[in-house]
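During the no-cost extension, the postdoctoral fellow (Dr. R.K.) reprocessed legacy sequence entries with the updated structure-token encoder. One reprocessed record is reproduced below for audit purposes.
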Amino acid sequence: MKTIKIIVEKHPDGYVAYPPGLRGVVVAEGETYEEALAEIKSAIRFHIETFGSDAFESDENQG
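Re-encoded structure tokens follow.
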């Protein structure tokens, strides 16, 4: 299983979460940290189920 880093940022209207290293746009938001984290985990699962290994950026694309 691959480890995926998730960044959660606090904004005036709540929290935004996203996983760098996945192709495409995968973003979630929530009123609380926990809500944003739960939403992004669900979005990541869906993204990987949909795109499989193509969901991940290749090592040659990472700096």
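Residues 35 and 50 are 23 Å apart (CA to CA). The chain has one domain: 7-61. The remaining legacy entries will be reprocessed before the final report is submitted.
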